[in-house]
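Re: Re: ligand-bound prediction request (bumping)

Still looking for help on this. To restate: I need the protein modeled with fe (ii) ion bound, output as structure tokens. Inputs repeated here so nobody has to scroll up.
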Amino acid sequence: MSAAIKTQSTIQLAPATPVIGAEVTGVDLRQPLGARTVAEIQQALDDWKVLVFRDQHISDEDQLRFGRYLGPLTPAHPVAEGLPDHPEIWERQASEYVERHRPDLNIPLAKAPRDYNGWHIDITFVANPNSYSILRGVEIPPYGGDTLFTNLQVAYENLSPQIKTLVDGLQYVNGTSAYDTEGPPRRDGRKPGPFVSVHPLVRVHPRTGKKSLFISPGGRNGHIVGLKQRESEAILDLVRAESIRPEYGFRVHWTPGTLVIWDNQATAHAGPIDYALFTGKRVVRRITVAGELPQGPDGFRSRPLEGELFNVIG
Ligand SMILES: [Fe+2]
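Reply:
Sorry for the wait, this slipped through. Here it is.
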């Protein structure tokens, strides 16, 4: 990480790579932010896609106030429940990942399956995924539990012109897995799925107008509308591989009090990438800012095929 670059702004940015990620200083998220600071953070998000704030030992209410500067908030998740007193907040503990992905806890680590590919865009099984995700480290182990991010706009921009032309007009269908739909009724009475949506494979960013690839790179249950299965798989394999080239990426090492916000309209992420390999306790709390229906270069708008739209709490 380079030293902070001094600017005339109220915030200071230290970019982490040429294309994605910056650390932000000069902001105390325990306090309300002025309009100029909020505008600078929004501009920094447009420019760097992932912003990291360190040493922000904030409350749930502080996190919610910060999120609302960027737009109305959603419930914690369309399937999973939020905290009882804060339905906007989704708490994740590393042990949940272990239970979900590694039921073989009694065998030695070296024999554990290592086929996890967690690269995703948040909540694309609904037609209107969130615009921003804001994740805060509550309890963080001294090492392990890092999160990877990739810039899907740069991934698109670096495709050959002929491939851009091919993918610009495509849509794909994407839905929840069986795991996600098996659960008790939600406290808010909404149906926890199943959800199935159709999205443009290339998304035009609602603020900047820039195009990005728009499919979860680690997903395996999507298919492109109107294509034969082998054609769909070949194109999706190409798009997914291009999405996560290492030169488009950035890795966040968490520390206590770290808060990360990412533009879910232009990035994908994977984390905690090594959940199966560390035993330290890791607790994080996430909120999400409501998003619009994604739009493709040809004007196509995402739409639900099954399940409700993601709702807004405010
Ligand atoms: Fe995520």
